[in-house]
C-alpha cells in the first residue's frame, strides 16, 4: 500500500508538470559520459579536456564543483589542491585567480598528443560559468556536487548560474542540458526543492565485493527526488539494473576505462557509463 501510494503521488506530480524532471534521462540510449572530460588523455576538469571530450562525441561531460574563497563555482575534483597542482591547501582557501595562476604552471602539457591545442588558459582551473560560456550551446553536462555540506549556499549559487546560462531544460534532441549528481542526499534534496524539473542522480557506493542492492524504503525515497543512480560497475548486476529501471530509475556505471567492461555494462542493460576514455566504444 505504501509503495502504491508513492507511485500514485509521483504520477500525479508528473501529470501536473511538477515531477522529478522536465526532460527525463534517456532510457533507450547507452550514454558515454566523459568523466572529468577526456581525462585519460588531458589534465582533468580543464577546458582542454572538455574540448577533446566534445571532439570524441561524448554524450555528456561530467564535472565536479566546489566554492572558492571569493564565492566562485569552480571545477575541480578534490577539495584539496595537491592532486592536480604544485600547491597545498583546500579550494575554499584560494580565490579563483589564485587557483588559475597555480594550475597554469603545473597543468599545461600534452603527454598523449591528443589535447586540444590552445594557450595555457585551456589547462587552468575553470569557473563553471566559463565552461558554460564555451560549451553550453554545444554540450550537455552532469554536474557533481562535491561535499555540499562544506559550502553553505552552493545549491542556490548553482541554480542561479544554471538559469542565467540557460542550462535548464532539454536540448534539441530532448536530452536534459544539465543533470546534477551527488553522494549527498541532502544536497540533492535541496536542489529538488529549488527546482524539481532538473534531473538528479544519486551516487551510491557499496563495499568491495558487495553486489548492489537497495531496500524498498530506499528505493521509495529515491523516487521522490531522483531520476536515477550512479553505481560502481563492480557492484552492478543485471537483476539489480533491471529492477531499478522497472522502478523508474536509470542506472549509470562508474568509472569504466576498458572496452570489455564497457560492453559488459551495455549488455547488462545499464543506461550508460562514466569513463575517462570517451572513445572507448565505437559510435
From TrEMBL:
Organism superkingdom: Bacteria
Domain GP-PDE: start-end pairs: 30-283
Alphabetized Gene3D superfamilies for the sequence: Phosphatidylinositol (PI) phosphodiesterase
Annotated Pfam families: GDPD
PANTHER family, sorted: GLYCEROPHOSPHODIESTER PHOSPHODIESTERASE (PTHR46211:SF7), GLYCEROPHOSPHORYL DIESTER PHOSPHODIESTERASE (PTHR46211)
Name this protein carries in UniProt: Glycerophosphodiester phosphodiesterase family protein
Amino acid at each position: 500500500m505504501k509503495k502504491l501510494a508513492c507511485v500514485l503521488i509521483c504520477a500525479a506530480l508528473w501529470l501536473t508538470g511538477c515531477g522529478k524532471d522536465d526532460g527525463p534521462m534517456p532510457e533507450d540510449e547507452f550514454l558515454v559520459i566523459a568523466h572529468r572530460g577526456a581525462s585519460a588523455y588531458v589534465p582533468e576538469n580543464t577546458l582542454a579536456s572538455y574540448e577533446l571530450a566534445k571532439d570524441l562525441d561524448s554524450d555528456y561531460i561530467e564535472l565536479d564543483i566546489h566554492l572558492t574563497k571569493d564565492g566562485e563555482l569552480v571545477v575541480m575534483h578534490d577539495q584539496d589542491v595537491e592532486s592536480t597542482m604544485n600547491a597545498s591547501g583546500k579550494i575554499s582557501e584560494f580565490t579563483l585567480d589564485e587557483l588559475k595562476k597555480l594550475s597554469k604552471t603545473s597543468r599545461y602539457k600534452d603527454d598523449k598528443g591528443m589535447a586540444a591545442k590552445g594557450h595555457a588558459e585551456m589547462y587552468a582551473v575553470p569557473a563553471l560559468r566559463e565552461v558554460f560560456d564555451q560549451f553550453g550551446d554545444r554540450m550537455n553536462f552532469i554536474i557533481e556536487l562535491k561535499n555540499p555540506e562544506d559550502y553553505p549556499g552552493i545549491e542556490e549559487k548553482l541554480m542561479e548560474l544554471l538559469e542565467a546560462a540557460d542550462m535548464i531544460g532539454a536540448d534539441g534532441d530532448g536530452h536534459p542540458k544539465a543533470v546534477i549528481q551527488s553522494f549527498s542526499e541532502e544536497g540533492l534534496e535541496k536542489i529538488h526543492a529549488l527546482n524539481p524539473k532538473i534531473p538528479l542522480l544519486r551516487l551510491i557506493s557499496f563495499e568491495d565485493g558487495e553486489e548492489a542492492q537497495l531496500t524498498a524504503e530506499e528505493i521509495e525515497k529515491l523516487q521522490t527526488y531522483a531520476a536515477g543512480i550512479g553505481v560502481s560497475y563492480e557492484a552492478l548486476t543485471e537483476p539489480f539494473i533491471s529492477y531499478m529501471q522497472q522502478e523508474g530509475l536509470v542506472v549509470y556505471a562508474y568509472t569504466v576505462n576498458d572496452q570489455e567492461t564497457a560492453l559488459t555494462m551495455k549488455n547488462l542493460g545499464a543506461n550508460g557509463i562514466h569513463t575517462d576514455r570517451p572513445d572507448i566504444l565505437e559510435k
